[in-house]
Amino acid sequence: MSDTIFTKIINREIPAEIIFETDQVLAFKDINPQAPVHFLVIPKKAIATINDLEPEDAEIVGQLYLAAAEIAKQEGFAENGYRAVMNCNPDGGQTVYHIHLHVLAGKPMGWPPYQNNLKQQLP
C-alpha cells in the first residue's frame, strides 16, 4: 500500500490537529467537518479498506472504537450521543485508502424524515 495522507499525519510529515494518541491509534479533527464535532480515528497500521481486514486486525478495530468512546467522554458528548462510521470503497464514500472511523457529534444525526416523525410521536 502506498503512503496516504494519513500515513503522512502519523509520521508527522504534514500537520493535523491531533486530539488523541496511543501506540496503536491516532485521532485528529477532520479538515472538512460534517458536524459541529467531526474527527477521525485511524490505526497506525496501514490497512486500505474494511475488505482488507484480517482476523488479527480485530483488536486494532476495537481500539478505534474504544478511542472514540474515550474522546466522547472527555469532550462531554458521550451522553448526548454520536455517530461512529467507516466508509468502504468508492460507493461507500471512502476517499482515503487507510481505514478510518469518522466520529460525528454536536447535532442530531438521525435520518431527517425519521427524526421528524419521531418528534411528532413524542408527548
TrEMBL record:
The parts of the chain that form a coiled coil are none
| Gene that encodes it | hit
Q: Where is the HIT domain?
A: 5-114
One Pfam assignment: HIT
A single Gene Ontology MF term assigned here is: catalytic activity
| Active-site feature positions | H100 (tele-amp-histidine intermediate)
Organism the protein comes from: Aliiglaciecola lipolytica E3
Motif Histidine triad motif per record, residues: 98-102
Supply the InterPro entries for this chain.
Histidine_triad_CS, Histidine_triad_HIT, HIT-like, HIT-like_sf
What's this protein's name? Hit-like protein involved in cell-cycle regulation
